[in-house]
Design brief:
The chain is mostly loops. It contains 1 helix and 3 strands. Strand 2 and strand 3 form a beta hairpin.
């Protein structure tokens, strides 16, 4: 088998992410068995403080 352009066509067709059962997004990793969006199969939803940025709040400095 030759290297380069002809061999690139044989690399497609592998699914790494499928649809999640809990959140419905296309972010469930098939091999790792974990959703990158909601954290399924963990009991708690995946959430971090840096996700919810407060927009429109002004600081009260004078």
């Amino acid at each position: 088998m030759s290297k380069g352009t002809p061999a690139k066509g044989r690399r497609t067709g592998k699914k790494s992410h499928i649809r999640c059962r809990r959140c419905g997004r296309h972010s469930y990793h098939f091999q790792n068995k974990r959703c990158s969006h909601c954290g399924y199969p963990d009991k708690k939803m995946r959430s971090y403080n840096w996700q919810n940025k407060k927009y429109g709040k002004r600081s009260s400095k004078k």
